Amino acid sequence: MSVPAVCQRLFLCLGTAFLLAGCAPGEQAVQVQAVDTAMGTVIRQSIYITSDSKDSKWGEESEGENTEILTGAREVITSLEEESLSWRIPSSEIGSVNETAGNSQGMELSQKMWEYLQRIWEVSEESGGALDVTIAPAVRAWNMDAWTQNTYTLPEKEEIAKALEYTGYEKVNLESGRIFLPEGMQLDLGAVGKGIACDEILHYLQSRPEVSGAVISVGGSILTYGEKPEGEVWRVGIVNPLNTAEQIGYLSLEGQWCVSTSGDYERYVEVEGVRYHHIIDPETGYPADSGVRSVTVLCKNGMLSDALSTACFVLGTEEGIKLAEQFDAQVLIVDGQGNIHMSTGMEPYVTLKEQRVS
Ligand code: AMP
Ligand code: MG
After folding, report:
1. Which one of 18, 39, 98, 107 is most buried, counting C-beta atoms within 10 A?
2. Beta bridge partners of 49
3. Contact criterion met (CB below 8 Å) for 6 and 88
4. Helix (H, G, I), strand (E, B), or coil: what is residue 235?
5. For ligand 1, is residue 129 a contact (CB within 6 Å)?
6. Cα–Cα distances in angstroms (integers) from residue 259 to residues 165, 198, 199, 225, 331, in the given order
7. Whose CA is nearest to atom 8 of ligand 1?
8. Would the CB of 39 count as within 6 Å of ligand 1?
9. Strands ordered across the beta sheet of 41-52
10. What is the pLDDT of residues 219-255, one digit of tens each?
11. Per-residue pLDDT tens over the stretch 329-338
12. Ligand 1 probe mutation, 187, 280, 292, 303, most atoms within 8 A of CB
């Protein structure tokens, strides 16, 4: 994952619980909430649990039972990070794949990783390589971990050019459940990991019949699930990339959806008045300069929404909208002038404060 700190997890607030009215007769919904960090990002959980009021001993003594659901969801994320996705952890599946670079035997992938990589490769192909999880050497050359340090120096052009010799998804062989990574190449699933976490949490929630609804955000990827009491819709805010203290509006969603946003405000460093952000154009090895400031993708699948938000950011407005539509996903893009562009299918979900952002 992109930010250090697998070990810096911190439960800021676990188990705030509220009793809510408005369910079916005889039922009560309890809302439990937590804010926490994992995968190098902030995780916000708000889960509604329905129980039969006759049997329910809701009160102090049942709070633990209800907040256990928050702990379970958090564990889904941390084990995904530690066992599967983190390139920083050599024993994770991706860490192990990276260790086999140059090995002619390749490595056998778990069924799940095989399926994820197949779908990631499909987005890479359809986007003409705008999404490329072999971008790792170029991302390392930018040394994003040091972006918070005053002493940060930009990489030399030669360093970027050298890194690009070891990138390119088409150089990787995915065959019969195995991956063959050429020498010097590495995978970094930072562009899709938070969306994959949403997919895994969805499975977890589906296995818990007492959960009537939930909204969970893993950094820039958000999962909505089930229903809110009183039949309200889920509202997912869209940050104004030109002024991140504000929102440009929100999406109104019913039931299960995934929303991922990629923006140049999420991770960046400014050197001599120029902003260098974390979404790299695989063609140049430099931060994508497609004229967009943020891309929000809406679809049913977390991995896909996350993959597409990164790919559309690299492609820019026109091609980005085409790509999202190709995958039956909806997209909203804010460009550098504050203009808002949307796929036609996105319009019914969006409420904007203004038609243009400043
Ligand atoms: P996101 O915030 O989902 O757009 O993902 C950005 C993260 O994905 C970065 O921090 C890098 O680790 C990685 N990344 C950057 N550019 C690309 C790219 N073009 N394709 C795939 N991964 C990328
Ligand atoms: Mg992404």
Report:
1. 39
2. 30, 211
3. yes
4. strand
5. no
6. 33, 10, 11, 12, 9
7. 191
8. no
9. 11-20, 27-38, 41-52, 211-218, 221-226, 257-263, 292-299, 330-335, 340-342
10. 999 999 999 988 899 999 999 999 999 999 999 999 9
11. 999 999 999 9
12. 280
Q: 60-79 vs 193-206: helix axis angle to the nearest 10?
A: 140
Q: Ligand 1 in contact with 220 (CB < 6 A)? A: yes
User: Is 200 close to ligand 1, i.e. is its CB under 6 Å away?
Assistant: no
C-alpha–C-alpha distance, residues 74 and 165, integer Å: 38
Whole-angstrom distance, CA of residue 193 vs CA of residue 179: 19
**pLDDT tens sequence across 35-77:** 999 999 999 999 999 875 444 444 444 556 678 999 999 999 9
The number of helix segments (H) and strand segments (E) in the chain equals 8, 17
Ligand nearest to the CA of 188: 1
Please tell me if the CB atom of residue 314 comes closer than 6 angstroms to any atom of ligand 1.
yes
Structure tokens at 251: 């999406």
Q: What percent of the chain has pLDDT over 70?
A: 89
Dump pLDDT digits (tens) for 142-186. 999 999 988 899 999 999 999 999 999 999 999 999 999 999 999
The ligand 1 atom at the shortest distance from the C-alpha of residue 311 is: 19
Which ligand lies nearest to the CA atom of residue 262 in the structure? 1
Burial of 271 (0-12, 13-18, 19+ CB in 10 A): exposed
Closest atom, ligand 1, to C-alpha of 309: 4
Atom of ligand 1 nearest to the CA of 188: 12
